[in-house]
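Q: Here's a chain of 722 amino acids. Please give me its 3D structure as tokens.
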Amino acid sequence: MAIIGKIRQRSWILVGFIALALFIFILEAALDRNSLFSGGGDSTVGEVDGAEIPAKEYSDNIAEYEEGLKMINPSMQITDEVRTQIQDEVWSSILAKRLLEGAIQSLGLSVSTSEMGELMWGDMPHPLAQRFLMNVRQVKPDIIDQQTGQINQGKIREFISNIDQIDQQNKTNFRQMLSAIEKLIQDDQVKQKYASLVSQSFYMPTFMAKEVVNSGRAAKVGVVSVPYTSLPDDKYKVTDAQINEYIKNHAALFEQEAARVVDVVAFDVVPSADDTAEVLQKINTLRNDYLASLPNDSAFIARNSQQGAQLAYYSKEELAQTVRNADTLFSLPVGTLTNVYTEGNYYLFTKIIDRKIAPDTVRAAHILLSLGQGTEADKKAANTLADSLIRVINSNQKTFGQVAVENSLDEGSKNKGGDLGYFSRGQMVPEFNDQVFYKGMAPGQIAKVETGYGLHIILLIDAKAPKAVTKFADFVVELVPGNETEKLAYDQAVDFQQKNQTAADFDKSAKSQRLIKNVVLSKNMSQVPQLGSARKLVQWAFQQEKAGVVDFFDTENTYLVAKLSKIVEKGLPKADDVREEVTALVRNELKAKDLIEQLNKAGAGTTDLAAIAAKVKDAMVTDTVLIRFSSAFVQGVGNEPKLVGASFGVPVGKTSKAMAGERVVFMVQPKSVEENVPEMEGDIELYKKQMQQMFISRLNFQSIFESISKKAKVEDTRYKFY
């Protein structure tokens, strides 16, 4: 990937990409060590086609995953949300191994040594290998030939052979990263080969292609219909046996996953008046301290602001999207310090740092040079080279584009003469962005700037839409609940739980509290609607054997007292669970039998729809209505897919028998059908090829895995432990 593509992004994206690669490798290695088909303890977190997944195997893999995270990014916090994501990734990897490993092995899919070498060090290395090379280049810049931009195979081999000679930390990191990426690439290639084999199995029969192409056809029909509402509900009594039979006959519609329904009383921890007064005093003291000392803005913000150093240029339109008083702030003179004001849960004051005219969009080109290991000597050498190249350009010995092609490390732009195209303010990393937008560069001017990616020689080609921008410094203190406030909410929640330990007491007392009813929980849910992160609540709910129990929970910014209201088991629901919904459906089936009999009797010996309708109470007749095959909607009747189907299935001029629809019983009489089938067989073949290409483009290993998982017998009981 072009370096500039990364310059346009936040630096954490690169770290995340490399980290992800390592995580997967660590996971795969752990899976291999734990022998997927061996035992490992009596406790299990699930089953795949009858094979148990030991809890120890699952927990060991999670631990390995978290260790990998910390190794790549020591400062990263493993929050509840991150931990849940890790758990899901581990679970998916175990399932993939169990479901697909045998098929992949039986097909003999593998990656040869020569193929692996090409993927790692060839002219077009795998994206993951490119990430490894980027890191290697930090300690060995000459692995990339600066003249050709290609990988120097000899230098790579030299680096790997002598890896033990670099410092211990880098040696360990590079060895681990190399192993990780090699494993990842190998695994990815095998998966890609498997997906390719599956995609090539796609076939669309000619008759199906014709039907799809013909989906735009239309029909003019006559319709007589009788709504189910024409018959009184109280005439049709529906029993539980009928409801259960309906559920059984329509199992695909009612199949449900295990769930739990809870009622929750929430005791929110919100800032009190005392908390507000304390924060207001703090921000005013901070403002007074600033006025007394007039310090360096960046240093003062970094030292005192809870949101770090926030210094940035905004146009009035951009500022209006971030704060409410954009007009006021933009009208203040440079150097002004505002009074304290609020933005949501933050108290802040702002200093007007600078104001200038800056372009909204620029076009620039750059030459990226290496800073080596970032030592002063390396930086001096890079700047010396840059100055030399600038002299060559300014003397017209070579154009900027020629110098970029010969010297730039950015593979994405060097062959375009370093041209980055047009981009807006804020798209580049701060140092690069500030240089081209705020340092007063004019088109045609050249400048140097150092970023985390190296030393850039920048040529400003064009600048558009100049407008006034203002630089602001925000000094921010967040309003958060104090210890006393949190203790008060905690005491209230505990008191409520202790006084209402039965379902009846809970229901009686909850009416006067902030009650959230009928919260539906799935067994692996981490974020709960209206409650946020509440994994402990979910775990508790699925561990209970009966409804009615009450318990206390501590979640982020909220204390909860919950009552388990209902246990929903996996499979088909009972009559009590879907009584209202299914009763109406069963009742309509009973009504349909009677209405079908009435319509068929009225239609005996005649095709006159008006005459048929005259014999049936509340029957409606439409002599001519246009129906399209691609739409289930029928003018004057409503959404009736069966009626649409019958309109194209009954011969023109014939009248159908009475049929049951979604809302009505109907008879249909097609008068004409407009076909849309291509005359040329070649058109059908072309369409078949297009469908095949579309299918292949959408298919990947993940979609195959998800499809196989749906058909497999997977039992997920992780909630017992996590």
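Q: Can you summarize the key feature?
A: The domain at 259-270+482-568 is CATH 3.10.50 (Chitinase A; domain 3).
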